[in-house]
Amino acid sequence: MLVFVSDLHLTDHAAGQPELENHLITLLESIRRRACELPECKELELVLLGDTLDLLKTRRWFNNPGLRPWRTETAELGDLVLEIAREVLVQFQNFSSRLHQLKAELKGERGIECKVTYFVGNHDYLLNSTVARLAREFVRDKLGLDGKRGEDFPEFKIWPEYRVFAAHGHQFDPLNYVYGDLKPFGDAIVIELIQGFLNRVGGTLGLPEDNAIMRLLNQCYYVAPHLLAPLWTISVLARTGWQEDVAECVTEAWSASFAALADESHFRENLRRYLNIPELNVIERTLLQSFRVPGPFRKRIGILKIADKLRKQIATEESHKRYLEGVRSALRNYRHCRYGVIGHTHCPGLWPLELTGLEKEPRLYFNTGTLRQVHQPVIYANKDLRHFFSGFVSTYVLFYHPRERPDGVMNQESFEFCHTKSSWRFA
Q1: Side-chain half-sphere of 411: how many Cα atoms within 13 Å?
Q2: Tens digit of pLDDT for each residue in 201-259?
Q3: How many Cα atoms occupy the beta-carbon half-sphere of 21 within 13 Å?
Q4: Which of 128, 164, 256, 257 lies in the 20 to 30 Å Cα band around 196?
């Protein structure tokens, strides 16, 4: 049995973590139960398909202003990555303990060999940096991962016996993947824009991370796409009726964070190189070009005005097409594979890929979604954006080995797209 789960985004702050950890343990129990129900199951591989530990969504970057993912790798950066990873797994020690117990239980009760494989995504790729060997060793030990302690975590892999290709999916996202020495622009959006916004609101209003307002605003991390996060916070303000000083603080914090991102020297110096990335869509190119506006005018424009101006295009941009095409291209390269699995977008789903003249059977693209809250725009008939649709998503993808078919039909691959919990509402 081969199981994929992705985008857990485990962070180092306590707000909201106990609830998430309970969902994770429920997920592991669901997977254990499925394995034990199959008499022919002899092995289980659980693949954490990227963005499991979130090394970007932390205040620790602001406690170390000289360190950033896009700057020169130093021993101090490696120490910070280890510090963040340690604190994340302190917050989720019950989850890591349950992983170890799961392996022991399956082996002892059913003779099932269980292994856990860790992929890196765009929020934890720093684990593979040359200065982060100690962090890799720590994560392997703490989560009971297979492989040599200090070796890099994979970005993609093929399982011939299951006919599966898998990757996190950020490889198909031009602003969230490493292009040679050009680090992801998305790192700065998370750290300087979104985390910077949260720091400014909390600092100005004197609110701790576990305050109700901060816990709600922290959900802006899970707005898809990220550029709509400012508009989502405005819709939250309108719905909750917060006091005028809070609303003013939120607006000012977004403007100041946008200005700080635009003033980051690495991106000013490399803006032309980012704009030359051929895979950029209209929205991404417009966002980058906004940083060319001279500083005195940039704050006046602000991220709120940019997002509002582009909201129809942002909301109707069919960004899933780039991931569908990316998976299709990968499956062309690995013709034996029939299934392509990625995460990254936080939007679970299953899509058939069109047959070409050389193909005799349909191929399928799976997206593993997330185990987090997701806030997506609602598009009305006039293509306007007025509301967000919010919900908790908990999904995973499971592939049976040909000898494990639950319906008794042997020597054919089989899969399940599983929801352990899903609830949606207007926000």
Answers
A1: 0
A2: 999 999 888 888 888 888 888 887 787 888 888 878 777 777 788 888 998 999 899 88
A3: 20
A4: 128
Residue type at position 418: C
Contact 164, 339 (CB under 8 A): yes
Measured distance CA(9)–CA(46) in Å, rounded = 17
Handedness of CA 262, 267, 271, 276 (dihedral sign): negative
Domain annotation for the chain: domains and CATH numbers:
2-174+319-426 (3.60.21.10), 185-278+282-315 (no CATH)
| Pairwise CA distance, residues 166 & 158, whole Å | 7
Residue 188 CB burial class (10 angstroms; 0-12, 13-18, ≥19) = buried
C-alpha distances out from residue 427 to 61, 234, 235, 374, Å: 30, 11, 8, 11
Residue-averaged pLDDT of the chain: 85
Residue carrying the six token digits 């890099």: 152
pTM of the model: 0.91
Phi first, then psi, for residue 364 (nearest 5°) are: -130, 140
Q: Which among 390, 368, 367 has a CA at the least distance from the CA of 377?
A: 390
> pLDDT tens digit string along 293-325?
655 545 555 666 666 666 666 655 656 788 999
Cβ neighbors of 242 (< 8 A, separation 6 or more) are 213
Question: How far apart are alpha carbons 316 and 339 in whole angstroms?
Answer: 27
Q: How far is CA 349 from the centre of its chain?
A: 15
Higher-confidence residue of 374 and 2: namely: 2
Measured CA to CA, the distance from residue 388 to residue 393 in angstroms comes to: 15
